[in-house]
Amino acid sequence: MRLLIIHIQISDEDGNEDNVTFAQMFEEVQLYAAAFKRIGLQKGDRVACYMSNRREAIYAMLAAASIGAMFGGPLPFYGAKAVAAIMDIMKPKFLITVDRFQFNKDEIDILERLPEIVNGHDCIEKVIIIPTKEESKLKDISAVNNSCFLDDFLSGGKNADGSVPDLVFEQFPFDHPVFINFTSGTTGLPKGLVHSAGTFLPLLRDFGLHNNLDRTTVTLAMQPVGWNLWNLYVGNLMLGSSLLLYDGLPCFLSKTAFWDIMDKYKVTFAFIVTSIIDTFEKEEIVPAPDCKLEHLKMIAVGASPVKLQNVDFILQKVKPDVFVGCLYGNSILGKSGELVIATPTPSLPVCVWNDEGEAKMQETYLSKFP
């Protein structure tokens, strides 16, 4: 009998570890939603997220979705100018962010970027800052317009007697917008691709049927908000699958750190970008002899073309009986190709944000095969 179901496990480069049960997650979302409502979040508003791979992003997203607001934001690695450009497009009512984070042993100071990002954007009515260290709570944040720390924001969601209003998920149409995912902007200004809650239907198919994820499995999730993989892995919570949120980059802490973490938390499914697999092979980043990875069933590789030697490396140096899934179709076909779906599909964006006349939507998705 499984007495405790861990839905979110947390680890990071600072050495912090924690876990969150489904019931605890529900209580957090309930409080976040109440706090958002108290400061005026409504249907159709936007909540921007600018932070590393943290549990608070999941709480804020679910809370915003319960109200009918949209959620999204830039990658935490973007500098102030790039983030400000996305704020110009998104025009969020609220921004939830973090003071700092560590990535590949480098200290990233988000707090110092915030004045340039926030000031001048009158649309941002409140900036909610998550302090990752106690000393951060003593810092003067007055240079960031309309800012407060997370505890102050959450305390506003409580009733006078300390209780929290019930969590109510408002009911909306299938195509009601929930997410805004931004493109990289390499060919111009970033485009905001708007997805509805219906986008999760293909995820149930992919992760539930194809990958066999359920209440007994653990998914490694290292990608923060701003990368669409974050949206994919959050969807695994619908299946009861646990998430291991790793905040940072464990690959280079030591030769075995990445695999040690996979083994310690009994990871079942992991996505690893092709370039990281290349680095693992070049630097001989392989599991230690006593690291058995007994629970690991599938490694998905993608984001760029997957080579045969990538698959060979995983099977020969990581685990011989793990299923290696290629998420870059050209490698399987041996040539470029198009799978044309002429009828509506839930994974198609609802629209491109601020796309008057749907010109960008037509150009991006519907021009080659109308």
From TrEMBL:
Which branch of life, at top level?
Answer: Eukaryota
Q: SUPFAM superfamilies, per this entry?
A: Acetyl-CoA synthetase-like
Give the UniProt keywords, A-Z: Membrane, Transmembrane, Transmembrane helix
Which GO molecular function annotations are given, in alphabetical order?
Answer: acetoacetate-CoA ligase activity
Q: By its UniProt entry, which InterPro entries does this protein fall under? A: AMP-binding_CS, AMP-dep_synth/lig_dom, ANL_N_sf
Q: Where is the AMP-dependent synthetase/ligase domain?
A: 17-329
Span-the-membrane segments of this chain are 57-78
Q: Does the keyword Ion transport apply?
A: no
Q: Where would one find the signal peptide in this protein? A: none
Quote the Gene3D superfamilies the UniProt record gives.
Answer: N-terminal domain of ligase-like
Q: What is this protein called?
A: Acetoacetyl-CoA synthetase
Which species is the source of this protein? Trichonephila clavata (Joro spider)
Highest classification ranks of the organism: Eukaryota, Metazoa, Ecdysozoa, Arthropoda, Chelicerata
> Gene for this protein?
Aacs
